[in-house]
Amino acid sequence: MAFFRSVSYPATETVLTGEHVVLRAPSQQDFAAWSSLREESRGFLKPWEPQWPADDLSKASYRRRLRRYSREMREDRSYPFFVFRRSDGELLGGATLSNLRRGVAQCATLGYWMGEPYAGKGYMSEAVRLILPFAFVRLRLHRVEAACLPRNAASITLLEKVGFRREGYARRYLCIDGQWEDHILYARLADDPEPQIVMAGARSLFEPDTGLPEKETL
């Protein structure tokens, strides 16, 4: 059945453009902005993420990260995006569809992070609204899952705002900041009733776009 085929798609050429944000795959030219934002936001991000390797922000580690991203995209296992502000190309954060399962599942896991200076301004809500059509239409997924810590009120608000439904509670589900932590489990199905995904003024979500400032184009 066609429904169960893998999708071969050049994600490195994918640009998702919304009213205020632009998403594209990470590239080598993003290292300085990425490492600076991650370092600046270290204390802000630490409670919500796995422990960082000692060399996590080094150029060598970033090159390994890019090689892994490239391999996983080729293998249809993961689709990473950096989130940029549309007005000036400033890097804001990142979001990834990972752990893709084809066959009878047609499912992926959504993860995201936002730099501290840009948190709480609605950028990630818009970014997730752009990723969902990519997941359901371009990748033909049936289901996108997400998990967050019970004390992460901002993430809970974001997921419910963009149409994810709470499905369960997993004990000691992921190792976060060195500790096994309980997580609330969320999911969004392709045919779920949804808030408006395509925002006013947005370009096509499924075509490559060249509307980024010149310094940020691939």
Automatic annotation (TrEMBL):
Protein name per its UniProtKB record: GNAT family N-acetyltransferase
Entry keywords, A to Z: Acyltransferase, Transferase
Domain N-acetyltransferase, residue spans: 21-191
Pfam families recorded: Acetyltransf_3
UniProt keyword Cell membrane, yes or no: no
GO molecular function, one term: protein-N-terminal-alanine acetyltransferase activity
UniProt keyword annotation of ATP-binding present: no
Coiled-coil portions: none
PANTHER family the record matches: [RIBOSOMAL PROTEIN US5]-ALANINE N-ACETYLTRANSFERASE, GNAT FAMILY, PUTATIVE (AFU_ORTHOLOGUE AFUA_3G00765)-RELATED-RELATED
Species for this entry: Stappia sediminis
InterPro entries listed in its UniProt record: Acyl_CoA_acyltransferase (IPR016181), GNAT_dom (IPR000182), N-acetyltransferase (IPR051531)
Family: Belongs to the acetyltransferase family. RimJ subfamily.
GO cellular component terms attached to this protein's record: cytoplasm
